[in-house]
Design goal:
The chain has 190 residues and is mainly beta. It has 2 helices and 15 strands. The longest helix has 16 residues. The two termini are 28 Å apart.
C-alpha cells in the first residue's frame, strides 16, 4: 500500500488526493512479507508536479525532518515495542517480549488482550536508497516476515492533475515474487 498524507496527519487517517503548490507531503509505503525474502528492490514513483525532499543535502530545509528518516536503527529502537491498539498493564508488561518475538520472526501474528489480531508496523531500514527526479529506489538485502513502513517527503511544485504510478516491490533475482500498489491521481492546486 502507498499513500500520501499531510505532514500534520501523524496518525495516517486522511490520505490526500490534492495538495497546494509549495506544500510538503509525507509518502508512506507499506510492505508486507509473509516469509523471508532476499535481495528485495522497492521502486516508488513520484508523481509529476512533485519533487523529492532529500534531507541528506545541506541545502535542504531541515525543518520538516522526521526523526531518523532513512537512518539505520539504534540498538534501543530495535528492542523497543511496536505500537499496538491494545492498552492496559498486562499488555504493557509483555510488549517488549512481543517485539522480540516479532523481530525474530517466531510469530506470524500477535493478539491483543481481547484476542483480536494486531498489525505490527515496523520501520523499514533499507540497505541502500537511491533518489531520482521521478522515483525512489530502495534495496533491502534480507527482509524478514512482517509488515514494514517506509516514509519519504515530497514537495508540490507545479499545478495540475498527475498520475501517481504504482510502487513495485520484488526479489531482484526471483522477479516472479513481487507486489504492486494501486495507482492513483493527485491534483496540485495554486
Amino acid at each position: 500500500m502507498r499513500e500520501l498524507y499531510s505532514v500534520a496527519d501523524g496518525s495516517n487517517t486522511h490520505p490526500l488526493s490534492e495538495a497546494k503548490v509549495g506544500e510538503v507531503v509525507r509518502g508512506v509505503v507499506t510492505v508486507i512479507s509473509p516469509k523471508v525474502r532476499h535481495l528485495v528492490s522497492l521502486d516508488v514513483p513520484i508523481p509529476a508536479g512533485f519533487e523529492i525532499i532529500n534531507f541528506n543535502l545541506s541545502t535542504e530545509d531541515q525543518a520538516n525532518t522526521a526523526k531518523d528518516v532513512g537512518a539505520a536503527p539504534k540498538a534501543k529502537e530495535v528492542a523497543s515495542a511496536p505500537v499496538t491498539k491494545s492498552s492496559g498493564m498486562i499488555s504493557s508488561l509483555f510488549s517488549g517480549a512481543r517485539a522480540l518475538i516479532a523481530a525474530a520472526g517466531l510469530a506470524s501474528s500477535l493478539k491483543d488482550v481481547n484476542g483480536e489480531e494486531v498489525i505490527q508496523y515496523q520501520k523499514l531500514y533499507p540497505n541502500f536508497v537511491e533518489m531520482h527526479d521521478d522515483r525512489i529506489f530502495l534495496f533491502v538485502e534480507d527482509l524478514r516476515p512482517g509488515t514494514y513502513k517506509y516514509e519519504y517527503f515530497i514537495r508540490a511544485t507545479v499545478p495540475g492533475t498527475f498520475s501517481h504510478l504504482p510502487a513495485v516491490a520484488s526479489e531482484m533475482y526471483f522477479p516472479e515474487n513481487f507486489g504492486r500498489t494501486a495507482g492513483s491521481v493527485i491534483t496540485v492546486s495554486q
